[in-house]
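Model it.
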Amino acid sequence: MAYSEKIKQFGIQGFVPEGWYWLKRSDEIKKGKAYPAKLMDLEVVLYRGDDDQVRAFDAYCPHMGAHLCDGFVEGNSIRCPFHYWKYDQLGICTEIPAQKEISNMPSLKSHKIREAYGLVWIWTGHEDDSEPVPVIPELVGLPLDYTLGSNFVKNCHPNVVMINAIDVQHFRSVHQLIVDLEMKVTPLSDRCIQFSNITPMPESNIFLRFAKKFYKKALTYEMTYWWGHTGSVMVGPDFLHFYIIFALKPNLNGQTEGQTILVTKKRKGLMGLLVNPILLFATKLVGNYFAKGDTIIFSRINFKFQTPIRADKAIIDFVEHYEKQNVAPKFSKSEVKNSHEKTVTV
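Modeled.
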């Protein structure tokens, strides 16, 4: 049996695991206006109320199906543009201009939303089962500065994009990396897995011998993956790490829509005012390089992992981790297809 025949979820179009997914940039959601947003076939309306909180509800009015993004934000409530039915911040119908009786009217379905790193995120798991939006492990509990980098579209599934960052073979073949990476795999939770390089900096020339002075142990390269679709990378010498988060989401066209987030520790005083913008700009250059990487390969790949070899161990560990993820309740009745159009009922 080919290895690909054992895969039931990884790289499968339409399988959406539980987790946080980015929807839009926070600065796009202006106070007092409503906006459409979409994750696969889940359509929602987003709006920012007078209390500055972003809310998300199913996009269509349960009365006759008008899209609420064309409606009116009133305080923390939203009013349908068609018949002016009004729904409060919990989605409860509070007014119907054509009649006084509203006690049995249907409510809007709400969705759990968070704002972090300048993005609006939606939770796809059970409402009573949540966890924080991803934080780079080394930075947990620390105040952060951040900025948004490039957004991008790749012509493949988010799982395939994420494979790229732990594919040690392609670092040599495509990017001609001078270090043979070896990834140590550490499951951090049922939903989070980490890959850390354990290979020391080589000493094959004077430049590398000098660079090794800044790496006490291994060359720093650490990837942390949440839910199989959002990841962070940590690189840099021991005295100064650079951090990038890649927020990814699938779309109905079988593509990946991505947004890079550049992160650093918040520094006080003059150091923060002068140094952090420079660090974030340098990180942005690195993030843009990663975001544009292997674009031609992604544009034509027909992913089917048939013959894994020893060098693919990190990828195999990632696949097996992802195969254990739970389908998001919002997508539990979806039909999912792999790259060869094999239909699987979830």
